[in-house]
Specification:
305 residues; mainly alpha; hpI Integrase, Chain A; 2 domains; 3-stranded antiparallel beta sheet; 13 helices
């Protein structure tokens, strides 16, 4: 059987058995298709049963020559492990040639985030006299105020907003459900957008429950969210590489700096592992020092000398 047949089976496995999100499935399959092209894009065809450890080392060397960074290589290795684990489960191969692969050292990359003043500066660039202005303001306030991923934002439903309780019901990565607090500011601008702007839009039947709608009456796209934030950042004069995810990073950073415990932040962000959340401890050294002084028991002992 050809690689393409196995890749289609793998795609179904990720969607149905693993219940992964479309973006995650697409990412895994894209990595495996590139691997297939590497092995079968020339005269030397490589059957899936013939691939061995050295072949993978050759592929990783190829990626390294292309200047693919360590973080991206780690993701590719994860995809390969997942794919060949699937082949083992399906009894297509007997041994997993990816077992001995080691991830390159990536270190912890500190995410780009905005200060409170910078977020205010971005918000001030929004022209609220235009119809899309109120929508864009609501987008910024929800991304920053609730710490949502871009996909979670564009898939947010009106029926999943619990106004009285002050929560959003979010379906995150791996279809994991969580409740995210909806703050007063985000709630205020969501209501203005929904009650004064969106209510007058013609919305296509398939998207009547989606919160954020474009001028064509369908849900707003990921690309559009990126364009909105890029344009506002440029207008504000902020010299940082800012994306929608930067607002999520800012949400988490400001919570931790304000004293929120990592477990609470983990729940709000929808991280499966606390180690993912620990990256947000890139705090001001004076803050960390003061935290130790305030909370460590030895620091509370009064010395007589």
């Amino acid at each position: 059987m050809s690689w393409n047949v196995y890749i289609r089976g793998y795609q179904n496995y990720l969607q149905i058995e693993k219940s992964l999100s479309k973006n995650t499935v697409d990412g895994y399959c894209r990595d495996i298709k590139k691997l297939n092209n590497f092995f079968n894009g020339n005269s030397d065809k490589k059957k899936i049963e013939e691939v061995n450890y050295q072949d993978f080392q050759n592929y990783l060397s190829y990626l390294n020559d292309l200047k693919i960074n360590a973080r991206s290589q780690s993701r590719v290795i994860s995809s390969m492990r997942s794919f060949f684990k699937f082949l083992i489960l399906e009894k297509i191969i007997k041994e997993n040639p990816t077992e001995l692969l080691e991830n390159p050292k990536t270190g912890k990359k500190l995410p780009e985030f905005l200060t409170i003043d910078e977020i205010e500066l971005i918000v001030n660039q929004i022209d609220r006299s235009k119809k899309e202005g109120e929508r864009n303001l609501a987008i910024i306030e929800v991304l920053y105020g609730c710490g949502l991923r871009v996909t979670e934002l564009i898939e947010l439903k009106i029926s999943e907003i619990y106004w009285e309780e002050g929560f959003l019901r979010i379906i995150g990565k791996g279809n994991r459900e969580r409740l995210v607090p909806l703050g007063k500011i985000a709630s205020k601008h969501l209501k203005i957008y929904l009650n004064e702007i969106r209510v007058h839009q013609k919305v296509k039947d398939l998207f009547v429950d989606h919160v954020f709608i474009n001028k064509n009456g369908t849900k707003i796209s990921r690309v559009m969210i990126f364009k909105i934030i890029k344009k506002l950042t440029e207008k504000s004069g902020i010299q940082k590489n800012i994306s929608p995810h930067s607002l999520r990073h800012s949400f988490a950073t400001h919570l931790v700096e304000g004293g929120a415990d990592l477990r609470s932040v983990q729940e709000m962000l929808g991280h499966q592992s606390i180690t993912t959340t620990e990256i947000y401890t890139h705090l001001d050294k004076n803050y960390l020092k003061q935290t130790i002084l305030d909370h460590h028991p030895l620091e509370k002992i009064k010395m007589d000398w």
